[in-house]
Amino acid sequence: MILATEKWTYSDMLAKLPPESRYEIRNYHLIDMPSPTEKHQELQFKLTLLLGNYIVSHKLGKFYQAPLDVILDEGNTVQPDLLFVSNANKDMIKERGIFGAPDLLVEIVSKGSIIRDYVEKKEDYEKFGVKEYWIIDPQNQFIQIFSLEANKYIPYSSADGEESLSVKSIVLKDFELKWSELFE
């Protein structure tokens, strides 16, 4: 939900809002981020274990959970559910957040975030150069992975429990997520 018509920047957000606030900025508009549901939290926890353990055991980089600011530019700040920054890009990690496009972002869709996750964030992550974007849709029990090729997202891997049983990542070489690990 967009809160105000005034122009917001990341600097404004830091100066005017409490540090523990859950807000994002899209095209200089402040957006309120409601608390996630229990199902959302359950999926986020499962993904944290699966992705986090893989990233740590293979020493690939840093893995984070929301809320953590990802500052794409001064007028676009997001708090993705999960994110990965490779060792090669670790310079973008600062105390206050991630400054630039992480290698991989994950959004877990809620009833109030369908358009935001499937359309707006997909467009933004593509525009700012996030190499891989995952959409986890609990209501439809669907996993979709998009890969950035020639500055455009292409569907790379998906699983819905019927046609396919797992998804694979390009960014996390040899990582495979079974649909049943999230939705069974």
TrEMBL record:
Keyword Hydrolase found: yes
GO molecular function terms attached to this record: endonuclease activity
Keyword list, A-Z: Endonuclease, Hydrolase, Nuclease
Occurrences of domain Putative restriction endonuclease (ranges): 16-177
Pfam families the UniProt entry points to: Uma2
InterPro entries the record matches: Nuclease_put_TT1808, Restrct_endonuc-II-like, Uma2
UniProt name for this protein: Uma2 family endonuclease
